[in-house]
Structure formats: structure tokens, C-alpha cells
Write a structure and sequence with these properties.
The complex is a heterodimer of chains A (297) and B (171).
Chain A: H1 2-5, H2 12-17, H3 47-69, H4 78-105, H5 112-118, H6 128-131, H7 137-158, H8 164-192, H9 196-209, H10 221-226, H11 237-250, H12 276-291
Helix pairs in contact in A: 3-4, 4-8, 7-8, 7-9, 7-11
Chain B: H1 12-18, H2 30-33, E1 36-42, E2 45-50, H3 60-73, E3 78-83, H4 96-104, E4 107-108, E5 141-145, E6 153-158, E7 164-168
Classes of the chains: A mainly alpha (297), B alpha/beta (171).
Bound molecules: zinc ion.
Zinc ion binds at residues 133, 135-136, 138, 158, 160-161, 163 of chain B.
Chain lengths: 297, 171
């Protein structure tokens, strides 16, 4: 922060009123996370489809980030408090770039805030796995293991997307989600291969998560239309199953056998059809922005 | 006034930008950390390109402000700070000078980042220690948490001197 100490302001008021300075008025510094990135949509890619796809992957990250933030001050140990907050922060960063990308891709120039705070529930495209309430620590770890294993496999393939922005966002995400998956896997093993009680609760957590797994591998028409700009999620299943088997084997846990949670007339999270928990989550996530719609932060 | 695009590390604008420090690791300059990618001058406009360490790095906005301030103070009126995402930042980009400053501040610098192809292997047990203690130099250290006060660091403990310390993760 040496630049700060060297600044020559005559008084504090001059400092806070200097134009174009995000630092001094706290909360006005959230500038475009893609500032200066070339966001031209490749000619062979449909901008509206690309925007919808960015919202899908961005909403997954935004909504699970919110759930992870809800662990703050509730985690079992300080180290886990810090870990969950960091994982939530990584996902929030991915969400910010993806939502911003969506506003550029569809030509609307909508900002990340506009997408995060001023869309209605049916406009959110996240999988229902992300919105499920945290439950106990075992449920949260089972959900994080499933989410990170799936997202890592997805992002790794997305690094060869023909959209260079999506490919670059994915390449950063791969490095981060590798750590998220290891963190969740280590907890699942520790609890599964722990005491009788921890084993029982870890298995119950997995069993409760499992109905939400099927949706992760159901491709949405937007993903299929995008072809080489996106990833066909059906291709991810073998790798997912292999990683989960490896973790659950070490954890002495059983892979659950559960029917996928039905959607409504075949529609689920990717179509904007959510579970009851989503409305409560959004009420919390959006309340401040909606109470002060002209505010900047 | 320089009119052609210049990316020389000798340029005065580069020297100014390179001296700005990281908000979260203030012992390092942005150049030491490897997030300062390019400084060009054209028609009186200084264009600085930086890259985030992690997607959620909350310090990016502060870095932009600090760069603008430092360059304005050095007499450059038009300053444009841009972000690049590709190639993604790697801990390998921390310079030798940066590694020395980290160690001096009691933070263990990162080892080589993993080079991967194909599916990424799981790590079910904390990686075996090759991180020497920055306080006493003992190689006998253990990871106590994969995450720490900032996204880029893990927590470790030395089994010789018992001191906890931070370690910049390899990514
Ligand atoms: Zn030591």
C-alpha cells in the first residue's frame, strides 16, 4: 500500500472526493471483473445461447457460494471456517466473471449485479444441488464432493471451448476446484472411516444428496446447441463415478442407490424450476440490493 | 513522449508500476508476485495489464487503484489498467526476489506447480512435506490446513520448532 502513503491530499475530504477512486468510498470498488478482456463472441457461436450457458455455470457457482458463506461462524473448527469461506470466495469469483460474460455475450451489457440481484427465481439456471440447504456438516461435505468432482471434470473439458473467454475462466477454475474437491474428499474419508456415529451420519448425508445427482448429467438443449463452445455433461459421468468410487472406497461408504429427484413436467434447475429452498435463499441474497436499488458498492 | 508501443522492462512507467506492492502480501511488489504482465506507453497513455491470482481475488480492485495512483503521481495522466485471464496465473511466476522476500517474512514460498495432463488425481492425504520451515529451516513440517487467511496460502506447522507458518500454495 505504499502508493497510499505517498499520496498528497491536503485533507481527508479531498481524499474521499477525488474522482474515479474506488478505494475511499468503501464499497464502490466492485468494477467489471472482465475489464479489458476482449469479450467479442466468436462468429460461429450464438450469443444468446452462450449467455444462457454462462448463466448456468455462473449461477451454480453463485448459489453454492452463498450456501458456503452461510457456514461462516458455524463451522466446526476455525480452519474449516476459513476453508469454506475461501472455497465460497473462489466460486463467487468464478460467478462474477461468468455473469459478466453473459451480459457481454447477449449484447445487453447487463452487469453481474443486475443478474445476481434483480432476476426472479425462475430466471436462475443453477442445478438444484447448489441450492439445497446446508443440512449438517456431513451433508454439506457430501454436496461439496459431488459438486466439485462434477465441476472439475466439466471445467477441465471447457478449457478447450471455442469461446476463448470461457476457456480462460475454466482454466483458472480448474486450479481452484482441484483444491475444493480434495478438501471435501478428505472430510468424507475422515468422517466415513471415523467413528460409528460419524460413519452413519456421513452415509446419511450422501444418501440425502444423491437424488440431486442425476440432474447434473442431463444436458440442456442450450448446451447441446453450443457444441464445441460448451461441454456435453453426459461425457462426465464415467470420470465422476470413478472419482466418487475412489473416495467412498477409502471412506468405507456405499454409493447410494436413489431415484433422481423429479422435476416439474420434465423441467428442473437448468430450466429455472427450483425447489422450495431457492426462494428463501434468494430473499436473503437479494434483500439489500433490492431495498437500495440505486446503491453502488 | 513515447509514441510507439513499448514493453521494455527498462521504461520508467514499467518501473513505477513494478514498484506497487500487493495489498495482501505487502512485502511483494506486483512484479515479484508475477501478476504484472505488461506495461505499454502509446500516445501518452500508459496501459498496464495485470492478471488475478485466484478468480475471487478481492485485491484486484485495490491493485488497479494503487497502479493508477502511483502512475499519476509519477506524472502519467492517462492510465488504463486491464485484466487478462489467459494464461492463468501460476505460483511459478513468483520471482526469485519474491521468494526471498516471502521467506524473510516467515512465509514459505511455493515449490514447482504441478504440470498436468489427463484427469487430475485426487489427494486424499495431505501431501508429504517438502516445505522447509521458514523460521528454523527444518524439513520436518506438516500441513494443518489447505486454506489460510488468503486464498493463495496454506497453513503448516514445524515439528522441530513447533511454530505455525503460512505457505504459498502451488497452482
Ligand atoms: Zn521450524
Amino acid at each position: 500500500m505504499s502508493a497510499v502513503s505517498k499520496m498528497a491530499f491536503d485533507n481527508a475530504y479531498e481524499a474521499i472526493t477525488e474522482e474515479n477512486d474506488a478505494r475511499w468510498a468503501y464499497g464502490t470498488g466492485f468494477t467489471d471483473p472482465l475489464a479489458g478482456v476482449d469479450t467479442t463472441v466468436p462468429a460461429e457461436v450464438d450469443g444468446a445461447d452462450l449467455a444462457a450457458y454462462c448463466l448456468m455455470l455462473g449461477d451454480d457457482a453463485l448459489i453454492l457460494s452463498h450456501r458456503l458463506q452461510q457456514w461462516c461462524t458455524h463451522a466446526p473448527e476455525l480452519e474449516d471456517e476459513v476453508a469454506l469461506a475461501n472455497i465460497g470466495l473462489d466460486l463467487l469469483g468464478q460467478a462474477r466473471m461468468l455473469l459478466t460474460r453473459a451480459g457481454k455475450a447477449d449484447g445487453s451489457d447487463r452487469t453481474e449485479d443486475s443478474f445476481a440481484f434483480f432476476r426472479a427465481e425462475h430466471e436462475f439456471r443453477n442445478v438444484r444441488l447448489a441450492e439445497a440447504p446446508n443440512g449438517d456438516f456431513a451433508f454439506s461435505m457430501a454436496r461439496l464432493l459431488v459438486f466439485a468432482t462434477w465441476r472439475l471434470a466439466l471445467l477441465q473439458r471447457l478449457t478447450s471451448s471455442i469461446d476463448p473467454v470461457l476457456a480462460a475462466i475454466a482454466a483458472k477454475g480448474v486450479k481452484e476446484v482441484t483444491y475444493h474437491r480434495d478438501y471435501a474428499a478428505q472430510w468424507v474419508v475422515r468422517l466415513g472411516d471415523g467413528t460409528e456415529l460419524s460413519h452413519e451420519r456421513m452415509q446419511a448425508g450422501l444418501d440425502a444428496v444423491w437424488p440431486l445427482v442425476g440432474e447434473l448429467f442431463e444436458p440442456h438443449p442450450v448446451e447441446l446447441r453450443l457444441g464445441p463452445a460448451a461441454v456435453d455433461v453426459r461425457e462426465l459421468r464415467p470420470e465422476f463415478d470413478e472419482v466418487i468410487a475412489q473416495v467412498l472406497g477409502a471412506a468405507t461408504l456405499q454409493v447410494p442407490d436413489a431415484e433422481p429427484l423429479a422435476g416439474v413436467s420434465g423441467k428442473a434447475g437448468r430450466d429455472g424450476v427450483h425447489t422450495e429452498a431457492m426462494g428463501y435463499l434468494l430473499a436473503e441474497l437479494q434483500s439489500v440490493a433490492r431495498a437500495h436499488p440505486e446503491a453502488t458498492w | 513522449m513515447v509514441t510507439a508501443t513499448a514493453t521494455t522492462e527498462m521504461s520508467r512507467a514499467y518501473q513505477v508500476a513494478a514498484s506497487v506492492t500487493d495489498p495482501e502480501l505487502p512485502m511483494l511488489t506486483l512484479a515479484d508476485l508475477g501478476v504484472l504482465r505488461e506495461v505499454t506507453e502509446e500516445d501518452g497513455v500508459v496501459r498496464v495489464t495485470i492478471t488475478p491470482t485466484y478468480s475471487g481475488c478481492p485485491a484486484m480492485d485495490t491493485m488497479r487503484d494503487d497502479l493508477v495512483h502511483a502512475l499519476r503521481e509519477a506524472g502519467y495522466r492517462d492510465v488504463d489498467v486491464r485484466t487478462v485471464l489467459h494464461p492463468a496465473w501460476s505460483s511459478d511466476w513468483i520471482t526469485e526476489e519474491g521468494r526471498r522476500k516471502l521467506a524473510e517474512a516467515g512465509i514459505a514460498p511455493p515449490g514447482p506447480a504441478p504440470r498436468r495432463s489427463g484427469p487430475i488425481p485426487l489427494t486424499l492425504t495431505p501431501p508429504s512435506s517438502r516445505v522447509p520451515c521458514p523460521k528454523c529451516g527444518s524439513p520436518d513440517t506438516v500441513e494443518t490446513a489447505r486454506f489460510s487467511a488468503t486464498a493463495c496460502k496454506a497453513l503448516r506447522r514445524c515439528r522441530s520448532c513447533d511454530e505455525p507458518f503460512e505457505h504459498v500454495k502451488e497452482i
